[in-house]
């Protein structure tokens, strides 16, 4: 899974630069696309993936990383094309995963550094696992937020720009989402699955008072109005997508 890990790191760092689920201008968009491709390739080369099918898959991953940045940014800005952006992200993960048998294990300078470091937790990791865990954790941040927002846009849970949004009633989602995903992934890797379930339950308890107040304050949905049904849909769909992303990352981490 070395190529998948390099691709994850490249996409995640590019999304952090552009602000994840925020629409960005041409300059930042171009810089993020360059970062996505460059980081994917450089990380792969540092991990010793500079030969044969590994290099070919690395270049394909770099192209898909650029496509994700450009398509997702356009979808976030226009509200259209969310499905295409999600498909490209899925391909970026699926292609190196399904063809992982064609790639060589990570090594190179990265493996040499892990052998050299005096940090025990790092010395015990293979280069492949270090790369994959790094990519999975980074992907829980801005990339996770972007994916959740695109799924919400694809089902119509996000209204056109300029109109009141369901997110206006539920503050802090951009911060709470990455935190809960990182907690779920970290607790799962530590074998604390029950604790991860408590994190999921806690989010519902924290948001419940806000939903009750919103239900009391809002009436029927109108042009300048957001209904409680829209807010509830936004919360439930967004939460489930976020949890699935964290659990999918946990599955990948445990399968490696």
Beta-strand residue fraction? under 5%
Let me know the largest β-sheet. Answer: none
Radius of gyration: 19 Å
How many strand elements? 0
Distance between the termini: 7 Å
Can you give the mean pLDDT? 84
Number of domains as seen in the coordinates:
2
Protein architecture, described:
- The chain is globular.
- Helix 4 crosses helix 8 and helix 7 packs antiparallel against helix 11.
- Helices cover 75% and strands 0% of the residues.
- The chain is mainly α and 256 residues long.
- The protein folds into two domains: 122 residues, no CATH class; 102 residues, no CATH class.
List the helices and strands and how they pair.
Blueprint: H1 2-18, H2 26-46, H3 52-78, H4 82-98, H5 108-116, H6 120-123, H7 127-139, H8 142-154, H9 173-189, H10 193-217, H11 228-255
């Amino acid at each position: 899974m070395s190529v998948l890990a390099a691709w994850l790191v490249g996409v995640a760092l590019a999304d952090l630069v552009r602000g994840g689920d925020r629409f960005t201008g041409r300059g930042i968009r171009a810089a993020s696309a360059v970062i996505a491709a460059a980081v994917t390739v450089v990380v792969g080369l540092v991990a010793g993936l500079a030969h044969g099918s590994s290099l070919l898959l690395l270049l394909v991953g770099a192209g898909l990383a650029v496509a994700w940045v450009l398509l997702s940014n356009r979808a976030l800005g226009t509200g259209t094309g969310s499905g295409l952006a999600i498909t490209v992200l899925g391909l970026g993960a699926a292609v190196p995963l399904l063809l992982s048998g064609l790639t060589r294990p990570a090594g190179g300078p990265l493996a040499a550094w892990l052998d050299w470091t005096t940090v025990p937790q790092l010395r015990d990791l293979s280069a492949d696992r270090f790369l994959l865990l790094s990519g999975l954790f980074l992907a829980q941040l801005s990339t996770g937020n972007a994916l959740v927002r695109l799924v919400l846009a694809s089902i119509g849970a996000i209204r056109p720009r300029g109109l009141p949004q369901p997110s206006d009633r539920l503050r802090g989602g951009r911060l709470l989402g990455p935190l809960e995903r990182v907690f779920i992934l970290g607790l799962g890797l530590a074998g604390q699955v029950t604790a991860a379930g408590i994190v999921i339950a806690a989010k519902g308890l924290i948001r419940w008072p806000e939903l009750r107040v919103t239900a009391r304050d809002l009436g029927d949905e109108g042009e300048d109005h957001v209904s409680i049904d829209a807010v509830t849909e936004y919360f439930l769909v967004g939460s489930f997508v976020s949890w699935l992303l964290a659990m999918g990352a946990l599955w990948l981490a445990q399968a490696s």
